[in-house]
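Design job #97: recover the sequence.
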């Protein structure tokens, strides 16, 4: 807002930009929980796939022979391109 008021005159386009930003702000605050959960899932999934890909490139045998229940499931391994 201070960017547009700097010249002490608000143009018509500035009004619409500020109004649009306000509407986006209200919408994001209304959907705060949904947006937060979706963003956290996306980030967690991204880092999980990146880490699994790194492990698969180092030693894919870890996934085949480790019977520990904490090992990644087949569904998780399907997210990465392992051979």
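Job complete. Output follows.
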């Amino acid at each position: 807002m201070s960017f547009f008021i700097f010249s002490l005159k608000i143009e018509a386009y500035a009004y619409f930009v500020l109004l649009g930003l306000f509407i986006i702000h209200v919408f994001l605050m209304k959907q705060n929980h949904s947006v937060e959960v979706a963003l956290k899932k996306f980030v967690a999934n991204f880092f999980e796939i990146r880490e699994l890909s790194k492990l698969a490139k180092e030693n894919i045998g870890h996934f085949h022979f480790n019977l520990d229940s904490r090992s990644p499931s087949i569904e998780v391994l399907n997210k990465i391109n392992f051979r």
